[in-house]
Design a protein that fits this description.
- By secondary structure, the protein is α+β, with helices and mostly antiparallel strands.
- The protein has two domains: 48 residues, no CATH class; 125 residues, Immunoglobulin-like (Sandwich).
- The strands form two sheets. Strands 3-9-8-5-6 form a five-stranded mixed sheet, with no helix packed on it.
- Helix 1 packs across helix 3.
- The termini are far apart.
């Protein structure tokens, strides 16, 4: 039986292949296809370059993200300088970033039992009236925690400001706020 693919694999299939998320039969079929198709090989090269670009931007603190605690632990284990804050449910915290901090991480405590989808809405006091909504963010319902990192490289240069984060549970019945958090950021003082 041949494992050759009759058509080109989809972009999603190539991404799954590159990430190792496909099943063995699909991976074998894509392997066979890539041996004969330069166009699809070029697409896999694009997936790889995109991944490197995202990884590099994240490493430079240029990408905001919702993380898992295990991912934060792996970053710290590699020697990354991580400043962490823990914010209680509906709480606030005074925070800052040091010049040598590579990543700011906030652990937001929230009642997440029964939540199936969670969005985060961010509002920065430096941009009144503007909000950014992050859809379907990862969370740990059992731990009751959302782990968030802003664009750390940007925060290094921001003046004193407030950041308000609202967590919104989304389900078939609609939306409901399940927590809000305020970060009172203090700008770094010149050396």
């Amino acid at each position: 039986m041949s494992t050759a693919m009759p058509t080109h694999p989809s972009w999603d299939a190539l991404v799954d292949y590159w990430l190792g998320d496909g099943d063995a039969a699909a991976s074998d079929a894509i392997d066979a296809h890539l041996m004969q198709c330069d166009a699809c090989g070029a697409l896999v090269d694009e997936v790889s370059a995109l991944s490197r670009g995202v990884r590099d931007a994240f490493a430079r603190g240029q990408v905001p993200a919702m993380l898992t605690p295990a991912f934060v632990d792996r970053l710290k284990a590699t020697g990354r300088r991580v400043r962490e804050y823990r914010v209680s449910h509906n709480g606030s915290i005074v925070c800052s970033v040091a010049p040598d901090d590579e990543l700011l991480v906030s652990h937001l405590s929230a009642p997440l039992q029964g939540v199936t989808r969670l969005d985060a809405v961010l509002a920065l006091s430096l941009a009144p009236g503007r909000e950014q909504r992050l859809h379907d963010i990862p969370f740990d319902a059992q731990a009751g925690e959302v782990v968030f990192t802003p664009r750390t490289a940007e925060v290094h240069h921001l003046p004193t400001h407030d950041l308000r984060v609202r967590l919104i549970a989304v389900d078939a019945g609609g939306e409901r706020e399940i927590g809000h958090y305020t970060f009172h950021h203090q700008a770094a003082r010149p050396a």
